[in-house]
C-alpha cells in the first residue's frame, strides 16, 4: 500500500455479529454514509474472494452521489478482508476479537488524490462511527 491511512474503533459486540453487519448488504444500507444528509440506497456484494461489491452513496436530495465499488481479494473469516477499489486503491479491514463481547475494527486504506488526507480520514471515520452506533443498537 502507498502511504495508507489507518482508522480504528472498538465495538461492544461479538466479532461474528460485527463481521455480519459489516458485510451483509441488508445492514450496509442502514449505516454506510457519513452524515444524516446522506444515505446508501443500494448495496450489492458477492462476498467471496474475487467477488465484486458495489455500494451507492448519495445525498438524500439526489444532488450528488457516487459508487464505492471494487473486488474482494482475500478473506480470512472473522479476521480480515483485503480488497481493491475500481480505481486500484487497496483497502484492508481487520477484525480483532478483544473478548467475547468486544471487537476492534481497523481499516487501512490508500487515499485518493482529489481530497486531503484529513478530509478522507474524517469521512471514513464518520462512516465507521455510524457503523459502530448501528451495530451496538441492533
TrEMBL record:
It comes from the Bacteria. It holds the Pfam family AHSA1. Signal peptide: none annotated. Residues 14-136 form the Activator of Hsp90 ATPase homologue 1/2-like C-terminal domain. InterPro entries: ASHA1/2-like_C, START-like_dom_sf. Belongs to the AHA1 family. This is SRPBCC domain-containing protein. It comes from Chryseobacterium suipulveris.
Amino acid at each position: 500500500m502507498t502511504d495508507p491511512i489507518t482508522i480504528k474503533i472498538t465495538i461492544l459486540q461479538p466479532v461474528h455479529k460485527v463481521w455480519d453487519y459489516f458485510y451483509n448488504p441488508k445492514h450496509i444500507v442502514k449505516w454506510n454514509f457519513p452524515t444524516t444528509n446522506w444515505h446508501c440506497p443500494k448495496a450489492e456484494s458477492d462476498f467471496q474472494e474475487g467477488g465484486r461489491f458495489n455500494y451507492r452513496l448519495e445525498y438524500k436530495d439526489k444532488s450528488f452521489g457516487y459508487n464505492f465499488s471494487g473486488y474482494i481479494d482475500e478473506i480470512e473469516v472473522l479476521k480480515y478482508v483485503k480488497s481493491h477499489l475500481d480505481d486500484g486503491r487497496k483497502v484492508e479491514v481487520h477484525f480483532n476479537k478483544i473478548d467475547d463481547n468486544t471487537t476492534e475494527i481497523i481499516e487501512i486504506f490508500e487515499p485518493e488524490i482529489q481530497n486531503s488526507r484529513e478530509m478522507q480520514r474524517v469521512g471514513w471515520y464518520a462512516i465507521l462511527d455510524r457503523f459502530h452506533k448501528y451495530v451496538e443498537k441492533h
